[in-house]
Structures are given as C-alpha cells and as structure tokens.
Amino acid sequence: MNWSFYLILSIVLFSGLLLRIFALLDLKSSIYFDFMLWDERLYHEWAKDIADGSFQSGMVYEFAPLPAYFMALVYWVFSPEIVYIRYANIVLGVLTCGFIYLIGVRMGNRMVGLFAALIACLYEPFIFYSIVPLKTSLSLFLSAATVYFLLAVFDAKSALNALLLGVAVGLVTNVRPNAVVWVPFLPLAIGMVRYRGRASIRAVGMLLVLYVAGLALALVPFSVRNYMAAGDARPTPSQSGFHLYLSNQVEYPDGVPFATTVPQERGIQFTIEASRRAGKTMSPGEASGYWTRELLHSMKKRPWEHTTLLFEKFLLSVHWFEQGDHYNIAFISEFVPFFRLPFIPFWLVIPFGVAGMVLSAVGSRKLAALALTFCVYAGTLVIFFTSTRLRLPLLVLLIPFSVLGIKAFFEALSEKHRRKIFGYACILLLVMVVEFLPLRNAQDMTTSLNTHAVILSSRGKPMRRFPSGKLHQT
Q1: CB 359 within 8 A of CB 83
Q2: Where residue 262 falls among pLDDT bands split at 50, 70, 90?
Q3: Which residues on neighbouring strands pair with residue 344, listed in sequence order?
Q4: Ramachandran assignment for 214, one of left (phi > 0), alpha (psi -120 to 50 degrees), beta (any other)
Q5: b/e map of 40-55 (b: 16 or more CB within 10 Å)?
Q6: CA–CA dist 370, 189 (Å, integer)
Q7: What does the alpha-carbon distance between residue 71 and residue 312 come to, in Å, rounded to a whole number?
Q8: Cα separation values, 186 from 117, 215, 278, 401, 444, Å
Q9: pLDDT-based confidence at 468, cuts 50/70/90?
Q10: pLDDT at residue 165, as a whole number
C-alpha cells in the first residue's frame, strides 16, 4: 500500500517536472526566451558581478539580495548564462510541489497531500514562473518551506524544526520583503497552538529561542554587510517606504512624475526627490522613512480617498485576473501555445481555498493559526501591490485548504450536516461573486503590451493587431 501510494506521488511530481520542461521548450521558440526583462536583467548583472568577485557597493541593498546570491551560486557552479536560472527555477518549482504535498499531509492526511501536490503541479502560474528567470520560484519554494516548518513546530517539540522555521522565514524576507510580516507573527502562532497551560511555557519559550536563532542565522549576514557598506544594519532592502508611497499615493493617478518604472532607477529618483523636498541630502534609508511620513500625512488629509483605494486593492487581491507587472500568461499564450492548455487557474482555486479555510479552521487551533498566517500575508497585498507574483505565496496555503475543504464538504454530505453544507456553499458563492466583480483597471494590459512592444523594438520588428485587439509581431 505504501509502495503504490509513493509510486503515484512520484508520478505526479515527475509529471509536474515534464510539464515545466515542455513549457520551457515551447517558450524557447518564442520572442520571450532570449530577451531579459527589467528585474531579470538587474539580477543577472548583479549575480554575474558577485560570481566573478567584482560586486562593490557603498549602499544598503536596494533590492532583495538573496536571489542575486542564489543566481551567483548557480553561475559559479555552471556558467553565467541566464538559461541555468530557468533550469534552477524548474527544480525549485517541483520541490515546491513536494513541499505542498508535505503541507497537505500535516493539514489532513496523505491523500490530501497527494491531491494538493497534483493541483500545484497543474496550477498555471506555478508552471509559468518556473520557466522564467525571475525570483518568484525561489520565493514560492521558501514560502512553502516556511509553512511546512511552521506546521512541523505545531505538531512536535522539535528543536530542529523551530530552527529551520526561523531560517526559512528569514530567507524569504530577503526574496519577498513583504513576507517580513511573518517574522513577528509566527511566534504568536506558535504560542497560540503549542501553549497548553503553565507546564508548557518553558517548552514554548525554548521553541521561540530556537526560532530567533534561526532567524538570526538568516538575517545577520545581510545586516553585517549593510553595516559595513553603509553604516546601516537593517537586514532587509531600503525601498519599503518608496513602495508604500508608490502603491498608496492618490495625488498622481498616472504614476509619480519624478520617477520612472525602471527598477534600477526608481529608488535613486525617489531618494533625489526626497532630498530636494527636505532641502538636505538623504540616504536611501532616510528617504524611505520620508516617503512613509508623506503617505501618512496624505492619509490624514484625504482619508476617504485612501480608504477607497485600499478597498479597491482588497478586491483586486482576490480578482480572477492574473495581473502581471511583467508578464501576462493569457497574453503570452498567443505566442506560447503550451499555455492555451486548460491548466488550473487562480479563479478556480481561490473560492474552494477560502471556503475550505473557513470550514476547516473552525474547531482546529492549528488550522486557525494557518488561516491567520494566510490573512497576515494577504494584508500586505492590500498595503503594497496586488500583482500575481506577490499573491502567489498565498497559493501555498490556498491549495491544501481547497482540498481539505472539499474533503470536509463530502463528509458533511455523507453525515447530512446541513449547516456545514450551507455554510460551505455560501462562502463558495460569495467568493466567486467577488472575484468576478467588474473593477476599474482590473484587466489592464498596458504593462504586458509595453513589454511586448519593447521586445519587438529590440528586434526591429513592427506590430499589427489581432482581430481581438491584441498585438502581434509581423
């Protein structure tokens, strides 16, 4: 029985690997394979400098540094060719599916884990971001590791799991900086689940000490480097204030006039503008604080507009449309036929995931803590950006919850538990209605069209329109 089950699991994960390989081969024949987009080029050049020992900087890291060091390691082992990052991301993508299996096992049982892994293998954005040289695949892998080790700490008094949890969450904050909200929250979640009266205070305290130790292992090297380079010991990038202002300001509906959308230039331009307004030269860290204060001042002056914006961002965070800040999978499917296949989309996972989360969390302290972990990260999408890449870590929890919810629903049917059946159906329907609301700019394709135009321009090719209105190379 065990042998046959693990054979099926191996087939599922191997199928996930094959799908990613086929996707990469199809992408290779398109114009999107050879051209590096902005973030890709930034990290590629940065990683090359680290690998050959020429990287020097007297500033705090402006961008999440771990992906650059990960890429540099790949380049050092093989060669500084971006295609090796695509291969590495495929490996990370399959490992993420494996972690989702383990998460499903700890949330339910082996069958929950198996179906969760199957959904992860077939989830379209997971496949796509496994074949592009962005940091998304690394962020998903570390997010899945964080959730798994959190569950492991919930289930057993393991010193190693607590230490690895701290390492995982520390690393993910230097890939996806908004995950820093997990750093203070996870100890609360551990206390919520593990505390069982006065006798367990010492045990919980020891787990938290080990968690902090793991966190230090992951963050101290970056803090030391920043202090030695710029006299600022912050362990995470310096652009949080810029992003906070940019994503929530209401003064400039078409984007701030003093900064471009190019990542390499935007931080410098925000720092220059802050220095100009303050009448003194500011460091990136000081400028970040300046823009945070500017936003808070604007919120006091225009509370209704900011409240409306936050509500719109909340709706966008659960919207069916895959809002890309570089790529749009539906648009790219015009050039990469592989993505015309009927893979599992976000709009199908989220209603079952949320319904399963609510249904499963009732009466289970462990699953309730996981649901809160989901909500804490989801809150950062409302505060910052709602793009597909940022909300993908939520799927690490949504996918197992969707399987667990379907399982609980069928159990309720067999037991004729009408209240559970009605509650599950209502939540499912409500989320489906919300995710298909006709929101302003919800299906904005400007970024994808501009990206496509840049690629065509780099190849000296004009563009023509599809009958649908989309653009294509001639």
Answers
A1: no
A2: low
A3: 123
A4: alpha
A5: bebbbebbbbbbeeee
A6: 8
A7: 36
A8: 24, 11, 38, 19, 35
A9: very low
A10: 95
Tell me what pLDDT residue 467 has: 39
**pLDDT value at residue 106:** 94
Q: Is 469 left (phi over 0), alpha (psi -120 to 50) or beta?
A: left
Please state the pTM of the whole predicted model: 0.90
Distance CA 137, CA 91 (A): 9
* Residues forming beta bridges with residue 473, ordered by sequence position: 463
Say whether 31 sits in a helix, a strand or coil.
Answer: coil
The position carrying tokens 């296949």 is 341
d(CA 65, CA 219): 11
CA nearest neighbour of 119 among 336, 398, 328 = 398
In terms of phi and psi (left: phi > 0; alpha: psi -120 to 50; beta: otherwise), the region of 124 is alpha
Residue 465's SS3 state is strand
- How high does pLDDT run on average in the chain? 86
pLDDT in the model for residue 290? 86
Query: Above 80 in pLDDT, residue 202?
Result: no
Q: Which of 324, 368, 344, 353 is nearest to 431 (CA)?
A: 353
Matching residue, tokens 């929950």: 112
Quick: pLDDT tens for 272-287. 888 888 888 887 777 8
pLDDT at 438 exceeding the cut of 70: yes
* String of DSSP letters for 287-352: HHHHHHHHHHHHHHH-HHHHHHHHHHHHHHHT-SS---SS--HHHHTTT-GGGGS-PBPHHHHHHH
Extents of the domains making up the chain: 2-237+320-443, 240-316
In whole angstroms, give the CA distance from residue 334 to residue 463: 14
Nearest in space to 435 (alpha carbons), one of 376, 373, 372, 391: 391
Distance CA 119, CA 408 (A): 18
pLDDT for residue 326: 75
Query: Side chain identity at 242, as an amino acid letter?
Result: F
pLDDT, tens digit, 9 for 90 and up, residues 29-57: 888 888 777 788 888 888 999 888 888 77
